[in-house]
Amino acid sequence: MKKEYSLAHLTAISTTPLELAKIAANCGYDYVSIRQIYMGVTGEVPVDLAENKKMYQEIKDLFKDTGLRLLDIELAKIFDGVDLKKYESAFETGKSLGAKHVLSSIWTDNREYAIEKFAELCDLAKKYDLTVDLEAVPIAGIKSFAEVADILRIIKRDNAGLMMDTHHFNRANDSVELLKTFPSEWFHYAQICDAPPTPSTREEMIRIMREGRDYLGEGTIDVATIINAMPIVPYSIELPNSKKVEEYGYEGHARKCLETAKKYCDTFVIGR
Fold it and tell me: Which CATH number applies to 5-268?
C-alpha cells in the first residue's frame, strides 16, 4: 500500500496556512495539515480562512495547481466551558478545502463532561463529513491512548477515531499489544516523529514536545513497532524543531522531515 505524507508543524506554529501549504507542495508532500482553531499560544499566526478570502482562494488555487490536498484541521480542544459552536466555521472552511479529519484533544479532568462534549463534537463534525480524531497528550486531561480507547467505546460515534502521535504514545508508556486490539476503523491518520529519551522533568518534556522532536530514525522511539501495530494510514509529520529550522530554514527542515520519514517507513513499516 502506498504511503502518503502530510506536513504539520515545523516549529511552534509560526507559519500561515498558505506558507505551510506552499512549503508542503514544494517539498512533494501529498497533504498539508493546517490550524484553523487557534490556541492563543506564543508564536501563533492566527489566520481565519473564513474571513481572509484572498488567502483562502490562494490555497484553493494551490491545491488545484499542485495536487496537494488538505488532510486535517486542528485543534478542536475539549476544555471546561468550551463552546463547540465556535468550531463550526473552521469545520465548514476545512470541508470546503477538502479536509477529511479534525484533530481533537481533551484538556479537562472532568471525565463525564469530556465524554459528553466529545460526543457532541463528533455529531457537529459529522454534518461536514469529517472524522474527529482524539489524541492523548502527556500534559492534557486525557494522557494515554488507553483512555482514548475507553472514550471511543463509550460514545460509539462512527466518525470518531484515535489519532496516534508516536511522541505522545511513547511518553504515555502505552502498550503496543493494547494498540493491536483497537479496531482498524478507528485509525484515519497518524502523527509521526522521533524524539530523545523521556526526560526527567515535565518542563523538559514540554520543551521537546514543542521544539525538540527528532527525524525518524534519529531518536530513541521505536516508531516502527508503534505504527506497524496499526493499519497503514496517511502520516502527518509533526516535527517541531527550532534548531533544525535555524539550520535549514522552514522549507529545508520540511524537506528533511519528508526524506527521513520516507526512508524510515519504506525500510521498516509494513502495517498490520
Answer: 3.20.20.150
